[in-house]
Design brief:
By secondary structure, the protein is of the alpha+beta class. The protein has a single domain, classed as 2-Layer Sandwich (Alpha-Beta Plaits). Helix content is 21%, strand content 14%. It has a two-stranded antiparallel sheet with strand order 1-4. It starts with a strand and ends with a helix. 25% of the residues are buried.
Length: 85
């Protein structure tokens, strides 16, 4: 699953620099995650770093983007091939 930042985000700037895929960006009001770039850190870390640094726990798995481990790893390899990371 890709991750999603909830409306409770306070724009503390902790998550964006931690994202190895550059999937986190400032949206209109809060940080957002590009689901096409989010691999939940698969290919880099054991756990999503944005979740571990979020002080308010407002980053969740996106129920709209259900992806298993293999799919996320495949996305990671495609991003590496396309040199988007």
């Amino acid at each position: 699953m890709a991750l999603k930042i909830l409306k409770g985000c306070i724009n503390c700037d902790m998550c964006e620099p931690e994202c190895p895929n550059k999937a986190i960006y400032m949206g209109d009001k809060i940080y957002e995650i590009n689901p096409d770039l989010c691999t939940e850190c698969i290919g880099f870390y054991d756990n999503p770093t944005c979740i571990s640094v979020c002080p308010l726990d407002v980053i969740i798995t996106d129920p709209e983007r259900v992806e298993d481990h293999d799919t996320l790893y495949e996305k990671f390899t495609e991003l590496v091939k396309a040199d988007k990371i």
